[in-house]
From TrEMBL:
SUPFAM superfamilies: Ubiquitin-like. It comes from Castilleja foliolosa. This is Ubiquitin-like domain-containing protein. InterPro entries: BAG_chaperone_regulator (IPR039773), BAG_dom_sf (IPR036533), Ubiquitin-like_dom (IPR000626), Ubiquitin-like_domsf (IPR029071). Pfam families: ubiquitin (PF00240). Residues 60-130 form the Ubiquitin-like domain.
């Protein structure tokens, strides 16, 4: 009886050894059959599978969920794409250039050369997009500068319209009295008020035209034609 039990145990261990040897050989054979390829960054990865005709089978695209503030985007990208290529796809959606973007995945900012698959990006994975602070500051400065330029242009247009209205009523004066007779804005103190309003508008543009220094304080009925024409601005205007 004891001899028979020992024989059964021996046969069982022998079979287990054969199975283990066969499994090890199969695993080694599978490792030998795997083909590898070198990525541009120097990483050795398993080569993509090929069909019977030898054509490389492209892997399905990943649907990457991108969170940008309160806005959500879903971008389709290959798992073999880099984060730099993902930024180019996001440019069409967000209007941000690749250099203005920062992509955060799993709490870490990813570089342009990192691959989606090697970083663990899977289908419907979430990536956070933030705008580069320096780029945002430059954009705000540019917007303020453009707004100021537009305001200056508007002020110039307003002043030009007032001058054009006065020019339509202007007649070459034969005397000082004729200057004040046809244009209400230039009668007595009204001219000074009008001039102060124009100077205030020009002052908003941060431009010093030295008008206060060169012009007379006012033009009144008491001024003689000779005194008025001595003023250089009056001479240059005709």
């Amino acid at each position: 009886m004891m001899m028979m039990k020992r024989k059964l145990n021996f046969n069982r261990r022998r079979r287990e050894g054969v199975v283990e040897t066969t499994t090890s050989c199969s695993s080694a054979k599978d490792d030998d059959d795997v083909e590898w390829e070198m990525r541009p960054g120097g990483m050795l990865v398993q080569m993509r599978s090929q069909n019977s005709s030898g054509v490389i089978v492209n892997l399905p695209d990943l649907r990457v969920r991108v969170e940008y503030g309160v806005v959500r985007y879903q971008i389709s990208a290959s798992s073999l794409s880099t984060f730099g290529e993902l930024k180019k796809l996001l440019t069409a959606e967000t209007g941000l250039q690749p250099g203005e973007q920062r992509l955060i995945f799993r709490g870490k900012e990813r570089e342009n050369g990192e691959y989606l698959d090697t970083c663990g990006v899977k289908d419907r994975s979430k990536v956070v997009l933030i705008e580069d602070p320096e780029s945002k500051e430059r954009r705000m400065i540019e917007m303020r500068r453009n707004a100021k330029i537009q305001a200056v242009h508007q002020l110039i247009d307003d002043v030009a319209m007032e001058v054009d209205k006065l020019a339509e009523q202007t007649i070459y004066p034969g005397s000082v009295s004729e200057i004040n007779s046809d244009i209400p804005e230039l009668k007595g103190d009204n001219y000074k008020v009008w001039r102060e309003r124009v100077l205030l508008q020009l002052g908003w543009m941060d431009i010093d035209y030295a008008i206060r220094k060169d012009e007379p304080s006012s033009i009144t009925e008491a001024d003689s034609h000779e005194n008025v024409t001595k003023n250089p601005i009056f001479v240059e205007s005709f």
